[in-house]
């Protein structure tokens, strides 16, 4: 189980005390309007605090149901300026009951961005961009959520626009058909993920009649038919996008009463009744099921064991007990994990996932192994563990520690208005009442060891199990005979000093303490022939235990604290960051300081971590993540012979050869006081700080404060590297080195330019509009002037990736074919040349500057982000990030920006990278300048068709001898 707490982002604010201000509707006659009653009560402060101390979620909030059925929740926070608006709609793939019409919930998540007659897409997008609004959405089994984050002065306008779109959504047939093509591309992109394939397979096998049989994307044949389903699309919208299914969650720097007035002004007149989906009842499963999925070219072997669970009913104990079982027996802290991953090293990955669903869903355990024969071993160990749950009483201390962990983890999730709002939205779709959160945690509190045993015997039976295997093989040998749980159960029933490092002390009154041990070293310090040494060393520190405690013992001790200690590695920075509640700070510090200052250096840990890194490169990057692979190959090609050349986590052959003694030498050389920068925020005591500083003074003093990095190699001409591998689509990245980094005078202007041209994961950017929106070619198109890893997994950049050298990069998310990739690349180059030639208009400049000025506070909206960016400002020798950016932007003119375009951007010297299954075809296309005509499934405007004719033959001008074909096996070898 990935436990769903009141936040999925990082951090916590103080949990606000006080009386709940709750407004609800009284019952009313159908012929009369609802008359709202305001309930307000003053309670003595002491009694209020006592009452709320018994609640896990204790923020003040205002909750009201309007006469039309719309539910509104407003939470005022102390985070300045920023407001988060979440609009959960109680419709998900569960409601797709009509045959041949799956995927429409997700499809309408896309269509809701098309606007209305009053605010068509280009108009409202321009308004939101100028207002710095971060506007996104996602779809789940049971609900769809639209979330917007913005500065408080734009609240009224955002509410007005969204209300008009929800009530008057408008789009053309051309827009409908184009978006259907985009959704198809998204399906193909997602289909590359082994996890998604496993989930799709197990749901199809486990369910016979319930709509959980299909995923949120839907069945592929239904997606293919979508372009011709416009009439059904309108019917779907009218049935489900109605007030009784919609909630507004507004969290931030707002006045609740005034906010409620605005909601009523714009949303109160919405009248629509809608139709409830009649979801078929799933018959009781009568036997264990198994299926195998052949996945061509997949390295290793995957196993998924899933059991039927229970609906999410927070007042009942079944679901809570199942969640606790998942965490106790199948998480990283479990004995099974230690057996499979750490001790016997049978598996390279293991994790659990139990989504909260309105109806009975599935409880999953995923395992990845290298050897086919280990699939049976892993499967049997999983099911034997379930048998163990049915026969033993869990240790009382272990259960108490888990409950403590859940409590503090919950608190750790409330670090920003956005995290509070997003979590509330994820619960509002159940009963549209945030008190379900407190009901859930009260349910946890009441569960005993006997309850867990009882629930396990009810749900973990053979007839509730569905198992899936997936690999490159046609079938798995020896997998025919399953574990009989009843038989196993029967058997079990039988039996302070001077220091030389920098300190950034930003302590405050927050009960959460964040600490960042930032070393100015990293992968750029890897010696020749030992690429990956920094990665191995840092992971041994973070995941290899200490001299006095094993990694397993540290995790066990850390667990009840809900503390964290993680590492992030880049070329010139190694960041060990952690968080803990101030109540547990002393114990937490003893654990993490022991790891940092006295690493364990155990051989078994070394072998395990090396294996995980190698598997991460082979399976995680090279096999399963074409988007990140293309970007990393681009960096490797641009920095040949430079310390930036190798992948951060190493080359495979070098990793194999690195020894434990190599790690010890790297640790002694690079982890010095001179390179250390300590950042602290939260309510850490002076006593603990002094202890920490005295301990860190034990590190070698060192001489160099940071790595010396040479200028990037000079790139001359146009080059292309084509990586051939098994792939359903073609990923594209290209770029060139630039001299401008964050501390340079022109950086803010260049940062504005890349935002206009390709803001990460933003539908407002120019490239996105030209390639994805207008032509429906892929899932997004973005540009960067700073290193941005893990871009497919997050919407905002991480801190502590400071570099002395950067590149200008364009990332085109995977295209449907080589032809489309060729056309999209030509389009990007075509538009880049136009930008260089004509520059930005005054209107575009002002809109982008407005967006960034409003957006930049969201980048540092949590406590740990604020600390990370403050440390980065020290690295670049700039002032506070938000102030620095806003001051620089305010001083810019469009003339400045267009000069910076001329000074920094060019198309004569470019490195392209293509990830494709047909390198021969891609090389032929590039070398011959083969035309790449684009085909649509709907009529397009004449001016677009005319432009396409120019672009389809637009020359990339890459000399044949500059086109390199690489087999995937040779990459990072």
UniProtKB/TrEMBL annotation:
The keyword Methyltransferase does not apply. Pfam families: Peptidase_M16, Peptidase_M16_C. The lineage of its organism: Bacteria, Pseudomonadati, Pseudomonadota, Gammaproteobacteria, Alteromonadales. InterPro entries: Metalloenz_LuxS/M16, MPP/UQCRC_Complex, Pept_M16_N, Peptidase_M16_C. Keywords: Hydrolase, Protease, Signal. The keyword Protease applies. Residues 234-406, 658-848 form the Peptidase M16 C-terminal domain. Residues 1-22 form the signal peptide. This is Zinc protease. One of its GO terms (biological process) is proteolysis. Belongs to the peptidase M16 family. One of its GO terms (molecular function) is peptidase activity. Residues 73-217 form the Peptidase M16 N-terminal domain.
């Amino acid at each position: 189980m990935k436990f769903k707490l009141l936040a999925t982002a990082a951090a916590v604010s103080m949990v606000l005390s006080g009386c709940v201000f709750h407004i609800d509707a009284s019952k009313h006659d159908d012929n009369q309007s609802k008359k709202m009653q305001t309930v307000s009560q003053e309670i003595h402060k002491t009694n209020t605090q006592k009452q709320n101390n018994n609640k896990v979620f204790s923020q003040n909030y205002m909750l009201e149901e309007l006469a039309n059925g719309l539910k509104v929740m407003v939470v005022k926070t102390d985070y300045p300026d920023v407001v988060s608006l979440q609009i959960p709609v109680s419709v998900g793939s569960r409601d797709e009951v009509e045959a041949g019409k799956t995927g429409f919930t997700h499809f309408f998540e896309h269509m809701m961005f098309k606007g209305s007659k009053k605010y068509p897409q280009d108009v409202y997008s321009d308004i939101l961009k100028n207002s710095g609004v971060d506007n996104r959405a996602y779809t789940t089994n049971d609900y769809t959520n639209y979330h917007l984050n913005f500065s408080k002065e734009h609240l009224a306008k955002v509410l007005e626009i969204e209300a008009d779109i929800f009530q008057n959504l408008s789009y053309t047939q051309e827009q409908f058909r184009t978006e259907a093509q985009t959704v198809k591309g998204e399906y193909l992109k997602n289909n590359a993920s082994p996890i998604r394939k496993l989930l799709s397979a197990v749901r199809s096998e486990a369910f016979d009649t319930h709509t959980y049989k299909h995923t949120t994307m839907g069945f592929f044949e239904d997606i293919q038919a979508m372009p011709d389903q416009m009439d059904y699309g309108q019917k779907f919208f009218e049935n489900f996008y109605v007030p009784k299914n919609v909630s507004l969650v507004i969290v931030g720097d707002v006045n609740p009463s005034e906010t409620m007035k605005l909601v009523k002004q714009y949303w109160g007149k919405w009248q629509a009744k809608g139709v409830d989906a009649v979801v078929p009842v799933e018959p009781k499963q009568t036997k264990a099921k198994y299926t195998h999925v052949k996945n061509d070219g997949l390295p290793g072997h995957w196993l998924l064991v899933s059991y039927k669970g229970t609906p999410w009913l927070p007042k009942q104990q079944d679901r809570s007990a199942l969640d606790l079982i998942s965490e106790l027996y199948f998480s990283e802290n479990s004995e099974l994990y230690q057996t499979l991953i750490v001790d016997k090293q049978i598996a390279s990955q293991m994790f659990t996932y139990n989504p909260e669903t309105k109806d009975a869903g599935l409880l999953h355990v995923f395992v990845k192994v290298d050897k086919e024969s280990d699939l049976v071993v892993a499967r049997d160990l999983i099911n034997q563990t379930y048998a163990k749950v049915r026969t033993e009483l869990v240790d009382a201390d272990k259960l108490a520690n888990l409950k403590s962990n859940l409590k503090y983890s919950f608190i750790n999730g409330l670090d920003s208005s956005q995290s509070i709002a997003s979590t509330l939205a994820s619960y509002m779709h159940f009963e549209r009442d945030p008190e379900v959160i407190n009901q859930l945690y009260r349910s946890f509190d009441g569960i005993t060891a006997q309850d867990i045993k009882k629930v396990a015997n009810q749900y973990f039976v053979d007839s509730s199990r569905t198992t899936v295997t997936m690999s490159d093989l046609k079938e798995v040998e020896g997998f025919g005979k399953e574990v009989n749980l009843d038989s196993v159960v029967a058997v079990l029933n039988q039996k302070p000093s001077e220091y030389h490092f920098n300190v950034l002390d930003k302590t405050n009154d927050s009960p959460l303490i964040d600490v960042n041990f930032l070393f100015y070293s990293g992968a750029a310090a890897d010696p020749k022939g030992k690429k990956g040494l920094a990665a191995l060393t840092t992971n041994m520190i973070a995941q290899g235990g200490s001299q006095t405690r094993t990694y397993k013992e540290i995790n066990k001790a850390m667990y009840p604290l809900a503390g964290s200690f993680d590492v992030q590695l880049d070329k010139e920075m190694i960041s060990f960051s952690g968080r803990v509640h101030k109540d547990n700070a002393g114990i937490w510090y003893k654990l993490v300081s022991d790891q940092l200052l006295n690493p364990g250096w155990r051989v078994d840990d070394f072998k395990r971590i090396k294996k995980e890194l190698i598997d991460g490169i082979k399976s995680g990057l090279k096999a399963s993540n074409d988007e990140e692979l293309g970007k990393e190959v681009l960096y490797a090609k641009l920095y040949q012979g430079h310390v930036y050349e190798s992948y951060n986590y190493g080359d495979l052959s070098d990793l194999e050869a690195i020894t434990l003694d190599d790690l010890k030498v790297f640790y002694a050389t690079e982890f010095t006081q001179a390179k250390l920068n300590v950042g602290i925020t939260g309510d850490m005591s002076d006593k603990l700080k002094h202890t920490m500083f005295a301990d860190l003074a034990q590190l070698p003093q060192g001489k160099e404060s940071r790595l010396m990095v040479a200028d990037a190699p000079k790139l001359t001409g146009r080059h292309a590297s084509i990586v051939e591998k098994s792939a359903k689509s073609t990923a594209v990245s290209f770029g060139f080195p630039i001299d401008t980094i964050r501390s340079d005078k022109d950086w803010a202007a260049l940062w504005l330019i890349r935002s206009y041209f390709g803001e990460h994961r933003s539908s407002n950017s120019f490239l996105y509009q030209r390639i994805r929106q207008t032509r429906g070619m892929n899932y997004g198109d973005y540009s960067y002037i700073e290193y941005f890893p893990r871009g497919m997994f997050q919407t905002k950049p991480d801190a502590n990736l400071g570099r002395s050298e950067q590149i200008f990069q364009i990332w085109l998310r995977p295209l449907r074919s080589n032809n489309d990739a060729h056309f999209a690349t030509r389009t990007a180059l075509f538009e880049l040349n136009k930008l260089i030639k004509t520059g930005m208009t005054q209107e575009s400049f002002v809109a982008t500057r407005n967006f960034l000025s409003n957006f930049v506070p969201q980048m540092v909206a949590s406590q740990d982000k604020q600390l990370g960016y403050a440390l980065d400002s020290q690295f670049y020798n700039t002032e506070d990030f938000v102030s620095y950016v806003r001051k620089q932007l305010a001083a810019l003119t469009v003339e400045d920006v267009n000069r910076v375009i001329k000074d920094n951007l060019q198309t004569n010297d470019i490195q392209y990278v293509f990830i494709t299954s047909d390198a021969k075809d891609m090389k032929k296309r590039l070398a011959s300048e083969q035309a790449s005509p684009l085909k649509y499934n709907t009529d397009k405007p004449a001016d677009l068709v005319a432009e396409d004719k120019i672009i389809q033959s637009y020359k990339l001008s890459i000399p044949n001898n500059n086109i390199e074909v690489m087999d995937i096996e040779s990459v990072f070898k």
